[in-house]
UniProtKB/TrEMBL annotation:
Pfam families: AraC_binding, HTH_18. It comes from Metabacillus niabensis. Keywords: DNA-binding, Transcription, Transcription regulation. This is AraC-like DNA-binding protein. SUPFAM superfamilies: Homeodomain-like, Regulatory protein AraC. The keyword DNA-binding applies. PROSITE patterns: HTH_ARAC_FAMILY_1, HTH_ARAC_FAMILY_2. InterPro entries: AraC-bd, Homeodomain-like_sf, HTH-like, HTH_AraC, HTH_AraC-typ_CS. Residues 181-278 form the HTH araC/xylS-type domain.
Length: 278
């Protein structure tokens, strides 16, 4: 399993919220020193911007995106006659994990060539949002989701890696997530069997109690909830195929009998599996 697959597996638990979105123009005397509490995405429309983080200097030009993750302290200033950009402050969480994107090296300057279609869609929707067009706030949120998903996809394809230096405390978060990779692989390989948290904790080399806490802090939900989500995702796919009986699906997902599976399925989807696909 690729670590980025978690966004597909747990897509129903992902929340994205826009705190503010606007455009701003600055003259050549502009300078800003900030450290945001949420995620911040800039879309450069005119000019060039120099970003300084610690001792490193980065340059963003017209068409580029700049993604800041929380707690990255930076100094930004214009080059030339000035600049103009759209800024979007947003939150992106998975379950109870409000900083899930910090597990990946995403913060940096993103070339427009990597997300060309997604930027075009976002800008088009932003113009509608500025005119207060009907439903434009919902569309803007959707377009931002698409844009962030594309950035994550390019990261997964190794076409992009953020350059901004992370705080040492964030590096620990990243290492925690990487340490769970064998656990993710084990769960996927044994999804057809009953899975006990104790045996999964052994894979991670941790006590059961510590593992539950560690897992929840890393991805925002408990191991049991993660396994349950994967089984329900797989159950949905198998039902849509219309090739297997409920008894067969129960066996394929490690449930002891059809009743146990049906009970778990109904708890999640609010309907029994027999009525899920018409």
């Amino acid at each position: 399993m690729n670590s980025l697959d978690i966004f597909n597996e747990l897509s129903e638990l992902i929340k994205l919220g826009i705190n503010s979105c606007n455009d701003v123009a600055h003259r050549n005397s502009w300078i800003e020193r900030r450290q945001h509490k949420d995620y911040d995405l800039w879309c450069i429309q005119e000019g060039q911007i120099e970003i300084r983080i610690k001792e490193e200097v980065y340059l963003a030009s017209e068409g580029d995106l700049i993604l800041f993750t929380p707690q990255i302290a930076y100094t930004a200033t214009t080059l030339g006659t000035g600049c103009k950009f759209i800024f979007t402050h947003f939150e992106f969480s998975l379950g109870d994990h409000l900083r899930i994107l910090d597990n990946f090296q995403l913060s940096g300057i993103i070339s427009s060539t990597l997300v060309e279609e997604e930027i075009h869609l976002f800008l088009e929707t932003y113009n509608q949002y500025k005119r207060n067009a009907p439903m434009s706030e919902i569309r803007l949120k959707g377009c931002l989701t698409i844009l962030i998903a594309k950035i994550i996809e390019q990261y997964g394809l190794k076409q992009y890696r953020g350059q901004f230096t992370h705080d040492p405390t964030n590096q620990k978060v990243t290492m925690d997530f990487v340490k769970l990779q064998p656990v993710f692989d084990y769960i996927h390989e044994h999804l057809h069997q009953p899975l006990r948290v104790e045996e999964i904790a052994d894979v991670a080399g941790m006590s059961e109690k510590y593992f539950i806490t560690y897992f929840k802090q890393s991805i925002g939900l408990t191991p049991g909830r993660y396994i349950y989500q994967l089984k329900m995702n797989r159950a949905r796919e198998l039902l849509y195929l219309k090739r297997y009986s409920i008894q067969q699906i129960a066996s394929m997902l490690g449930y002891p009998d059809p009743y146990s599976f049906s009970k778990a399925f109904k708890k999640y989807y609010k309907v029994p599996p027999s009525k899920f696909v018409w």
